[in-house]
Write a structure and sequence with these properties.
Blueprint lengths: L15 H10 L19 H18 L17 E6 L6 H13 L10 E4 L5 E6 L4 H10 L2 E7 L6 H12 L4 E7 L7 H18 L6 E3 L10 H12 L13 E5 L1 E4 L3 H6 L5 E11 L8 E3 L3 E3 L1 E6 L24 E2 L8 E4 L2 E4 L15 H11 L4 H6 L50 H9 L21 H6 L31 H13 L10 H13 L4 H6 L5 H6 L3 H8 L22 H10 L5 H5 L4 H7 L11 H4 L23 H27 L10 H19 L5 H7 L7 E9 L1 H5 L7 E5 L7 E10 L13 E5 L2 E5 L2 E6 L3 E5 L8 E8 L6 E5 L11 E11 L4 E14 L3 E5 L5 H6 L4 E4 L4 E7 L7 E5 L9 E9 L6 E2 L17 H8 L28 H6 L17 H4 L6 H70 L11 H4 L1
Parallel strand pairs: 1-3, 1-4, 4-5, 5-6
Antiparallel strand pairs: 2-3, 2-13, 7-9, 7-17, 8-9, 9-16, 10-11, 10-17, 12-16, 14-15, 18-23, 18-25, 19-20, 19-24, 20-32, 21-22, 21-23, 24-25, 26-27, 26-31, 27-30, 28-29, 28-31, 29-30
Length: 1140
């Protein structure tokens, strides 16, 4: 049945909307407004050009790199994963309860794990509350489609909020909505407005300008106001999500339930044995195969034992069941297996039913799911084992008697419990009987009424045995799940058993057989026994094997597939197992090999006879060549294709309206060839025009639209490839698609995962690509986070969050040195990127990651140490470290010296022959050859003579290798998920154990004493001094040996003189200060005067400029007027009249 087209929009012709629209279009005089496109355009062409550029820039900014959205259609899409994150105490749980109440009208007391609700006709939402530990925030950032970031409006942004935003940016940055809570604590309206504005600007800085921020005023009855929650839910309902690269290439699942399938006895004998667990949830991303390796963040890599599709516990409403505009209450489903919903809660492998207070079974009050479960268990008359033992199989819904097998003589074996059934009657097969549907209540009423007619049969139809004698057919009865799976032959038939076990025959059947025998002589041969022929054909078709199942779902060899199966399997099927009771067990007996004699006879009866003369026609090579082009293996240039012969040429159109048969005359064939050739030429011309027409034409698309169309066409082609395949084949070839609710069984799971399982911690199962299971060296571009307090040191352990994994490794930082080598850095540089190389499982290039020093909650500072992106994967790496070797000369010649204490052996000298060396003073040299004695000495050549006190050094590069250290973070295996401890630094271990750092005397810092060096005075020989001119001669005077009178005299003043001198000094000081102040004032006045003069000069210059312009304008007018009269072009001096 084809799906109905979407309902088109009908504009309102009456009502408030229509009146408002008509009033808007109405003019002043009552007529409709005319549209004038030029009314609101800019009059300046420059302004119009700027507007065009601005619009083009905005259009380009909206474009993004087109990505293929691998999510299935609306009906098969998985629920949108919405995570509620934020610091503790901001109202995440209250917000989650309010949203669940808004969508599903349900109230959950304690929320644990994911909660899935139906939010609309085409959308489902899975809510999950993100705990405050860093491990959970990292995992949620990798799978969440939308993050509701809760912020305390009365406090502001906290450290956990900024850490979460950094992690989100590193892992693809999904959509983020801000939610301000606790705004009712701010009483002043002006303060509230200022706080909202400040937080909004800060939120825009961290996310993007224009990011949506919602305000929740207060809590009413344990929930936020309905109007504010309604606005938030509406915004969530219309959001569109762009596929992220990592999720678009990996399959993943958020588990909403965990069960332990390990036998209890095995756990009792060994509590630490590895467990077998099953996880339930919706698949997301790309299809997942059961052969794919998976990784659980916090637990490790695991293998899938089995993967099965289950019925969707929270299906979206179908188009047929939900035709109203508003979603009905019965369609507002909710799925929260780990939460306390309806009194039922799933915990590992147990189901807890909470029934508060006392209740009565006869009470008419509505009961929850848990109470209904308890009541049904109390009303059960028998145990589950006894019910299974007494269960019976009924082929049809209305049948009252169970299935029973009988032989061709009417004596069959009955299933257990058949002799307890006293119901009789014969089942009637009528046309359309299978289409009738009866409710359970009607069936119970019919069975309870003593006088009601029993339409169900009391015995099983007699099946046909395949091959063998009658006795074998009586013992070996073929059974199947449905009638279509049984094998029939041309002799057997179905019979019905009566109450006494005999076959039931009707007189009407005998009469019909007599009438058919009388009419056999009057009908043609091909019309005789049509029913028998149809049964034979159907039995042959049923025995036809399914090649897809034989190839993908069996371990048979190609020879066994061609033969029809294994011979030992047939023998094993024919022999009953040891201890088998023939009355309790039935085997499916089916011959897969060659057809039986009855089958061949039936096939020959319906097969047309062949004439040898007609077969000889196929030996004609000309006839074969004429039709060879109609087959795939034929040549493309065959005659039939060149002439344009179609596939339908020469066939009759029996379903045409006029019933006219096509004309096969030579003229008609020639016309058909000409028409086909013309069509072919037209197609080639159209293809040529598409390639070589004007690229600026109207039908030409830009690169962005072409790329999107190509992706859409390829996606449609991929979808069409699996349309005709059944679900089992599609799962084997493609895998389980996103949106499927699956049951994932894992083996060899650590027992700590089950014992310490916490439903509030998100459990993610991520699919791994084949290359992500191998280990190697990863080269990444890293930058230390600007909020992290300390720089990072090489070989210090860091915790990386890369892909699905969280692990600890020791990176080596390096910097590319002139594109020649990677030079090791001891520390990361400030405010710039560097390269980091570490050992880990390989990851796809351009994959973002973030790094941490610690994941514990005890660190008060910002915990995100660095962010980066993967550049390359390599099994080996080349990082060099700068090394400086020093030595001293012990024999010095003119340009040669013997150097020692730089190398220890002659082999090292041979390794560095030809290397460049230098002295501290800058003299360059080269290593020549090793000396015999002392060991490690060599001969070096320099460009100048070196001194004995010179230090000679050699700069070299030493290759280093990163440590192969990989320590996965196993936080889910701990009782306290936030207390995972990895490899610690030596200083941290010493500090925790109270061990002092060992002190090396030679490594201690000592004060450097540098004595002042005394240089000898410059001495000029007397002969040279005499030859110098007087101006260049040194003016040297002998030092005076005797003191002068002024030096020898002693001045002794009287007290009055001292006072006078002091007074004079004070007066001078005052005068000096006055002069300084006066000069400062003068400077200020001078600067002010200078500024005024500059302003006046600027005004004068502007006035002069304007005067000059006016004068030049007048001169131009005069020249123009003189040019019109044909005057001469000689130069003329400017006069005062021209300048006035």
């Amino acid at each position: 049945m084809e799906e109905a087209a979407a309902k088109s929009h009908r504009a309102a012709h009456a009502g408030r909307k229509a009146e408002k629209k008509a009033k808007k279009l109405e003019g002043k005089d009552g007529r409709e407004k005319g549209r004038n496109d030029k009314a609101f355009t800019s009059s300046s062409h420059n302004r119009a050009h700027k507007n065009a550029l601005r619009n083009a820039e905005q259009a380009q900014r909206r474009l993004h790199v087109p990505l293929v959205d691998r999510t299935p259609g609306v009906e098969l899409a998985p629920p949108i994963l919405v995570a509620l994150a934020g610091p503790p105490g901001v109202g995440k749980t209250t917000l989650l309860k309010s949203l669940i109440k808004r969508y599903s009208k349900a109230t959950i007391g304690e929320i644990k794990g994911p909660v899935t609700v139906v939010s609309g006709k085409t959308r489902r939402i899975t809510f999950v509350e993100c705990p405050t530990d860093l491990n959970s925030m990292i995992d949620i950032a990798k799978v969440a489609d939308l993050v509701l970031l809760c912020i305390d409006g009365s406090f502001g942004f906290e450290m956990e909020t900024m850490e979460l935003l950094t992690v989100l940016q590193s892992h693809g940055f999904p959509k983020v909505l801000g939610v301000l809570t606790h705004l009712d604590l701010i009483k002043s309206p002006s303060t509230l407005r200022a706080q909202k504005k400040r937080l909004k600007q800060r939120f825009w800085t961290e996310v993007y300008a224009g990011a949506k921020l919602f305000y929740l005023s207060g809590v009413i009855n344990g929930r936020y106001p309905n109007a504010e929650i309604l606005n938030l839910s509406r915004f969530i309902g219309v959001m569109k999500f762009r596929p992220l690269i990592w999720r678009n290439t990996h399959a993943y699942m958020l588990a909403d339930r965990l069960e332990d399938l390990t036998p209890r006895e095995t756990v009792r004998q060994d509590p630490k044995v590895d467990r077998t667990v099953t996880l339930y949830g919706y698949l997301r991303g790309i299809p997942l195969k059961d052969s794919t390796a998976v990784h659980i963040p916090g637990a490790g890599d695991l293998r899938i034992k089995s993967l099965k599709k289950l019925e969707d516990p929270c299906p979206p409403p179908t188009r047929d069941s939900e035709k109203r505009r508003k979603l009905a209450d019965k369609q507002r489903l909710i799925h929260a297996p780990m939460s306390d919903l309806g009194g039922v809660r799933y915990d590992k492998d147990a189901v807890w039913v909470n029934v508060p207070g006392n209740f009565s079974k006869n009470n008419d009050e509505p009961k929850g799911e848990g109470e209904q479960m308890v009541i049904s268990l109390q009303d059960a008359p028998t145990t589950l084992d006894e019910a299974i033992r007494q269960s019976q199989i009924r082929l049809l819904k209305g049948s009252s008697a169970p299935l029973a097998a009988s032989s061709s003589k009417g004596k069959g074996r009955a299933l257990p419990g058949d002799d307890e059934s006293d119901d009789g009657g014969v089942e009637e097969f009528e046309s359309g009987a299978e289409d009738e549907e009866f409710s359970d209540e009607e069936e119970e009423d019919d069975l309870d009424e003593p006088g009601s007619s029993n339409r169900g049969r009391t015995s099983l139809r007699q099946p046909r045995a395949v091959g063998g004698s009658g006795a074998d057919r009586a013992e070996d009865v073929a059974y199947a799940d449905s009638d279509s799976e049984l094998d029939f032959d041309g002799e057997g038939e179905f019979e019905q058993e009566g109450e006494d076990g005999g076959s039931v025959d009707n007189g009407e059947d005998e009469d019909e057989d007599e009438n058919e025998e009388e009419e056999e002589d009057d009908v043609p041969r091909w019309k005789r026994d049509l029913e028998a022929h149809a049964a034979a054909v159907s039995s042959t078709a049923r025995r036809r094997p399914d090649l897809m199942k034989l190839i993908y779902f069996s371990d048979l060899t190609p020879e066994e597939v061609c033969r029809g199966g294994r011979d030992d399997d047939d023998d094993r099927d024919n022999q009953p197992a040891a201890g088998e009771d023939d009355d309790d067990f039935f085997r499916l007996e089916r011959t897969i090999g060659a057809p039986s004699a009855q089958d061949e006879t039936a096939d020959e009866a319906i097969r047309e006879s062949l004439v040898e003369e007609e077969l000889r026609e196929w030996d004609d090579e000309e006839m074969l060549d004429s039709i060879r082009g109609l087959f795939i293996t034929g040549s493309a240039g065959q005659e039939g294709e060149e002439d344009g012969e179609g596939e339908d040429e020469g066939f009759e159109d029996l379903e045409a309206d006029n019933g006219v048969i096509e004309d096969n005359s030579p003229k008609a064939q020639e016309a058909a060839r000409a028409a086909a050739l013309a069509a072919k030429k037209e197609a080639l011309k159209r293809k040529f025009d598409e390639q070589y027409d004007d690229p600026d034409g109207e039908g030409k698309l830009d690169f962005y639209d072409e790329r999107k169309n190509e992706m859409a066409a390829q996606l449609a082609l991929n979808e069409a490839e699996f349309v005709d395949d059944d679900e089992e084949t599609r799962h084997a070839v493609e895998g389980y698609r996103a949106g499927t609710y699956v049951r994932l069984e894992l083996t060899d799971v650590p027992c700590e995962l089950v014992e310490n399982f916490d439903p509030t911690i998100p459990l993610i199962v991520g699919g791994l690509l084949p290359n992500e299971e191998r280990f190697g060296f990863i080269q990444a571009r890293v930058k230390k986070h600007r909020w992290h307090g300390r720089i990072l040191k090489t070989n210090d352990p860091l915790i990386f969050s890369l892909g699905w994994r969280r692990f600890q490794s020791c990176p080596i930082y390096s910097l590319e040195d002139r594109s020649i080598r990677n030079r090791m850095l001891k520390y990361t540089p400030e405010h710039m990127h560097c390269l980091a190389t570490f050992y880990a499982p390989l990851a796809t290039p351009n994959t973002g990651f973030c790094a941490f020093n610690t994941l514990g909650p005890d660190t008060p500072a910002f915990r995100v140490s660095a962010t980066g992106v993967v550049l390359d994967n390599d099994r080996s790496t080349q990082i060099v470290k700068k090394i400086k070797l020093t030595g001293t000369p012990y024999k010095i010649f003119k340009n040669t010296a013997f150097v020692r204490e730089m190398f220890s052996t002659a082999l090292e000298v041979a390794r560095f022959e030809g290397a460049h060396i230098r002295t501290v003073s800058g003299i360059r040299g080269q290593v020549k050859k090793a000396l015999s004695k002392p060991e490690g000495a060599f001969r070096a050549a320099f460009e100048d003579k070196v001194l004995a006190s010179d230090i000679i050094f050699l700069r070299a590069w030493y290759s280093i290798q990163p440590r192969k250290f990989y320590n996965p973070v196993t936080s889910l295996l701990l009782a306290d998920k936030a207390r995972w401890q990895g490899m610690r630094l030596t200083g941290q271990v010493r500090r925790e154990q109270g061990v002092k750092t060992p002190l090396n005397v030679n490594s201690t810092y000592k004060p450097i004493e540098r004595p002042n060096k005394k240089f000898n005075p410059l001495r000029i020989p007397k002969k040279l001094s005499a030859a110098l001119p007087y101006a260049s001669k040194p003016k040297l005077m002998k030092p005076q040996k005797r003191q002068t009178y002024m030096q020898k005299r002693a001045v002794v003043m009287e007290p009055e003189e001292k006072k006078a001198v002091a007074l004079l000094q004070q007066i001078r000081a005052i005068q000096k200060d006055k002069v300084a102040k006066r000069s400062a004032k003068k400077d200020e006045r001078r600067q002010a005067r200078k500024a005024e003069l500059e302003k006046a000069e600027a005004r004068k210059q502007q006035y002069r400029k304007e005067e000059k312009k006016e004068a030049m304008r007048k001169v131009g007018l005069k020249r123009g007027s003189s040019g019109d009269t044909g005057g001469g072009g000689g130069k003329r001096r400017k006069t005062s009249d021209d300048l006035s």
